[in-house]
Amino acid sequence: MRFSRLNLLLITVAAVLGGVVISLLLGTGREAHWLPAAAPRNLPANTAPQSLPTLTAQALSLSWQQSIFSADRKPDLVSGKGATTALQGIVLTGVVIDGQGQWALLRLTNKRTRKLAVGATLDDGWTLSELSPLQATFTYHGQTRQLSLPVLRLPPPSTAPVITLPNVPRP
């Protein structure tokens, strides 16, 4: 029986790998080697934390007018909370009812999504008062509006004839 160089190389590699596996199974490398303990460092003495200075109401209100990080920031625009939009453009996209927790998933007019819990209020003042698996009821100053989930329907069945394969006997 004559071995070529490639066969001898493969047998040698297999023998070396087998030896490595056997040595690992016998426990080589299982013991941990820890570094020697070092002397403890000098830690700073425990001092009481310094108290923050109290700011006046005027100084605190300035943080709303101008940001520390953006010098060209302007005050936030006042949103018209008094106007009712009667939920125009808001779409109910989902309902989550999990035990005591109930949430409505909404897509707002600006295409953003929002998760709203029962009892929470939208920016325009409408409050989510009731939730069912298919509807969400909102109230605002005695008015009530309902949003319903869109019911998706399957298309009608096709009237085209069914495709049949020709009867071809097996060879």
Largest sheet: 3 strands, antiparallel
CATH topology of the domain at 91-148: SH3 type barrels
Proportion of β residues? Answer: 15-25%
Q: What are the segments in which pLDDT stays under 50 over at least 5 consecutive residues?
A: none
Helix content: 10-25%
What is the overall silhouette?
flat
**Number of strand segments:** 6
Number of helices: 2
Using the CA coordinates, give the radius of gyration: 36 Å
Strand order of the largest sheet: 1-2-3
> Which secondary-structure class do the elements indicate?
alpha+beta
Task: Just give the CATH class of the domain at 91-148.
Answer: Mainly Beta
Task: Quickly give the CATH architecture of the domain at 91-148.
Answer: Roll
N-to-C order of helices and strands: HHEEEEEE
Report how far the terminal alpha carbons are from each other.
47 Å
Mean pLDDT across residues: 82
Protein name: General secretion pathway protein GspN
Organism: Pseudomonas prosekii
Fold and architecture overview:
Helix content is 18%, strand content 22%. It has 171 residues and is of the alpha+beta class. It has a domain of 58 residues: SH3 type barrels, CATH 2.30.30. The strands form two sheets. The chain has a three-stranded antiparallel β-sheet, with no helix packed on it.
Outline the fold blueprint:
Layout: H1 5-25, H2 57-65, E1 91-98, E2 101-107, E3 113-117, E4 127-131, E5 135-140, E6 143-148
Antiparallel strand pairs: 1-2, 2-3, 4-5, 5-6
Structure in a nutshell:
The protein contains two helices and six strands; from the N terminus they run H-H-E-E-E-E-E-E. With 171 residues, it is of the alpha+beta class.
